[in-house]
Amino acid sequence: MTLQNIDKTLVKEIKKRRTFAIISHPDAGKTTLTEKLLLFGGAIQQAGAVKSRKNARAATSDFLSIEQERGISVSSSVMKFTYKDYEINLLDTPGHKDFSEDTYRVLTAVDCAVMIIDNAKGVEPQTQKLMEVCRMRNTPIITFINKLDREGLEPLDIFEDIEDKLQIECVPLTWPIGMGKRFKGVYNLSKKELGVFSSGYTPKDDGIFIDDLTDPKLDELISQSQADELREDVDLIVGASDPFDLDLYLNGTQTPVFFGSAINNFGVKEMLDTFIQIAPAPGKHTTTTREVAAEEKAFSGFTFKIQANMDPEHRDRIAFFRICSGKFTKGMKVKHHRIGKDIKISNATIFMAQERSNVEVAFPGDIIGIHNHGTIKIGDTFTSKEPLKFLGIPNFAPEHFRRVILKDPMKAKALHKGLAQLSEEGTIQVFKPLTGNLYIIGAVGVLQFDVTMARLKSEYSVKAGYETIDLSVARWVTCEDEKILKEFKKKNESSLTLDAEGWLTFLTTSVYQLGFAMEEWPDIHFHKTREHN
Ligand code: G4P
Fold first, then answer.
1. Which residue lies with its CA nearest to atom 25 of ligand 1?
2. Could you tell me where the DSSP H helices lie in 258-315?
3. 361: phi > 0 → left, psi -120 to 50 → alpha, else beta; which?
4. Assuming Cys at both sites, which of 83, 349, 401, 529 could form a disulfide with 394, CB separation 3.0 to 4.6 Å?
């Protein structure tokens, strides 16, 4: 990058941006923590607002009635808030029944993540899945161990669980004093500050500086026996764990750990204060031709999510777009490279905590919403001029499958069109078997099947149904050797399909079956993700 390509105001804006997501298993406390973070940022005024947002959305949405029936939100959102001069973009990761490929793909658009672990549960399956995606990009992770006001596992056992299941080294930055009824607070190991937990605790309460843990003041504050426990614990962990290393955090091999209770807003501020200091500002992104630095003057970005039904009045779709470099200004013309057209973005949306507003300017790390009438698909790159294609916004292998049965044979064309569109939007993935005519659709979360049926009916007037099918694993296959690939195709024809972009995909019943195939065909590559064409 040459010096004249750097703009000082742009650099300033980038430095103060943090774009992140929360990864957790349902019920670990993501909504509660989100709410506390938004309260700190002044983006919401009262507790309970995030939950009521969930409800309000389900109640007013008239398009996907399944959203109403199930009382959950099919869509997710972006929340922007300011904290101590930092502009923070929090991207929601749908995680309950609405867990889907979008949840994974949101992680391709963030620069860092906060992982919440329930004190009583340790590492749970969904967290493990999401960590796998973070691993692919070496996303820096800060860990928040939640619900210390309840009985749970010993902190060191949680560390062992995290290190074992997630292959990331834990470094405590705060340490809990007791838990459940005996929970007295946390000791900040680097600031040497004690945060005393009490029912009347407010996050404005400053920690008490205790430089030397032998200070008798500690015994007065938290009782002699718990003070002794803390002294022993701190001796042990200071001796046993490596110190925090910023580089190891930034390359995703070490995670700083905080303890607290989100519902009581306890331990959250410590985490947020550290987050703004150590979490990375928007950095580089890889394209098929070169790396693009956030500070480059020329504008660029990519679509990582397309959402229908944001505006039930218009039955519109919004493409969520992550800005990677340059400055976005309202009305700017950008090149949509896949279709080779210039488009003018005059009504992009930026997402504040609970509202949407029209964007005048936006910077790298920001997420803007662009109205989409079917011309934008997941992974599309827009730039001011240079033909680029960002990498790392892939399709993720689905885990649930259904065969589509068309009820009205006259609608075959409409079904084809509908499925193609829904797969471009990332709702589902569509597979056409090499042998046979019936489409198989795959999804990361089962709710997507209902969403697909509802949308096929309302947008394409297609009545269809599903047949269950004994499949649970999909892998995209490639091979350098044409002859071996031909042989593989011949022998496995009944398990092979072409996905919506024409890529050869192997579908099978279980990971064991996949293992057999991998053993039998060592020259074939079985991919869990696939980049878009
Ligand atoms: P999620 O978005 O990750 O699914 O979790 P959410 O924040 O909705 O929290 C799940 C449950 O855990 C909620 O209880 C919430 O109040 C509770 N919770 C969150 N943080 C803490 C904490 O620090 N301590 C304790 N003891 N509980 C916590 P719920 O009964 O399911 O919902 P609600 O009736 O409280 O809304």
1. 147
2. 268-278
3. beta
4. 529
**Nearest-CA residue for atom 29 of ligand 1:** 27
Instruction: Determine the distance separating the centroid of ligand 1 and the alpha carbon of 511, expressed in angstroms.
Output: 34
Residue 447 is which amino acid? L
Displacement of CA 158 from its chain's centroid (Å)? 23
Q: Give the pair of three-digit tokens for residue 65.
A: 């009635």
Which two tokens mark 531? 């980049």
Most ligand 1 atoms within 8 A of CB, residue of 32, 35, 72 to mutate: 32
Question: What is the C-alpha to C-alpha distance for residues 86 and 522, in angstroms, rounded to an integer?
Answer: 49
Q: Is the model more confident about 98 or about 253?
A: 253
Taking only the tens place, the pLDDT of each residue in 439-449 is 999 999 998 99
**Residue 209 in this model has a pLDDT that exceeds 80:** no
Please determine, for residue 201, whether its predicted confidence score (pLDDT) is greater than 70.
no
Return the best residue to mutate from 55, 201, 263, 268 for the ligand 1 pocket (most ligand atoms within 8 A of CB): 263
Beta bridge partners of 114: 22, 142
Protein residue with least CA distance to atom 17, ligand 1 = 29
**For the range 177-180, what are the long-range contacts, defined as Cβ-Cβ under 8 Å and sequence gap of 24 or more?**
177/222, 177/226, 177/229, 177/230, 178/226, 178/229, 179/119, 179/148, 179/149, 179/150, 179/151, 179/152, 180/149, 180/150, 180/151, 180/152
Distance 147 CA to ligand 1 centre (A): 9
Q: Is 147 in the pocket of ligand 1 (CB under 6 A)?
A: yes
Q: Which two tokens stand for residue 379?
A: 């992974």
Query: Which residue's CA is the nearest one to ligand 1's atom 15?
Result: 29
Instruction: Tell me which amino acid residue 510 is.
Output: S
What pLDDT is stored for residue 146 in this prediction? 98
Domains and CATH numbers, the chain: 17-278 (3.40.50.300), 285-383 (3.40.50.300), 394-531 (3.30.70.3280)
Tokens of 132: 């796998």
The tokens describing 56, both together, are: 């309000």
**What spacing in Å lies between the alpha carbon of 185 and ligand 1's midpoint?**
19
39 sits in which H/E element: helix 30-40
What token pair was written down for 475?
């892998």
Query: Atom 21 (ligand 1): residue with closest C-alpha?
Result: 263
- pLDDT at 128 exceeding the cut of 70: yes
**C-alpha distance from residue 46 to each of 27, 41, 525 (Å):** 21, 12, 52
- Number of residues that make up the chain: 533
Q: Give the pair of three-digit tokens for residue 176.
A: 């809990």
Nearest CA among 320, 336, 330, 319 for reference residue 384: 336
DSSP state string for 468-511 = E-S--EEEEEE-S-HHHHHHHHHHTGGGEEEETTS-EEEEES-H
The pTM assigned to this predicted structure is: 0.91
Q: What is the mean pLDDT of residues 431-456?
A: 91
